[in-house]
Amino acid sequence: MKHSQTIGILAALATMAVCFLPWVYIPSKQITVTGFQSLGTDFGKPGLFSMVMSIIMLILFSIPAIWAKRTNLFVGALNIAWSFRNYILLTTCIMGECPEKKPGLYLLLLMALCMMIMTMLPNTPVKQQKK
């Protein structure tokens, strides 16, 4: 695909922005959890790893080498797994209390999936061998 690297870079930047959006709202505690702010819960900073992986992927998307594309595939798999982990962890109902899902959590999954797809479509030129 011709623009896969550009789309991957834009998705990585969007993932970094999504980490600052609200992901879930817990009504009983009146807490809004974002990627970096989860005071009053035991979630820590669930967006920190996604942010680091997005920065690494952004760098690897911009390097036109085959090793970078292969490494980016591995990092993308880690990133999408972490995004699914965040979705499952943050939306789990505990003792009959279910958090309210916000659009930021869905955007995180969508951007991680987009980056993963773009890692599978690298724009690498194929050199013709002379016979």
Overview of the molecule:
This protein has 4 helices and 3 strands. By secondary structure, it is mostly helical. A 3-stranded antiparallel β-sheet has the order 2-1-3. Strand 1 and strand 2 form a beta hairpin. Helix 1 packs antiparallel against helix 2 and helix 2 runs antiparallel to helix 3. The chain is elongated. The protein starts with a helix and ends in a 12-residue tail after the last helix. 30% of the residues are buried. The mean pLDDT is 90.
Key descriptive features of the protein:
131 residues; mainly alpha; 3-stranded antiparallel beta sheet; 4 helices; 56% helix; 8% strand; elongated
Brief overview:
By secondary structure, this protein is mostly helical. It has helices spanning about 5-20, 45-60, 65-90, 105-120, and strands spanning about 20-25, 30-35, 100.
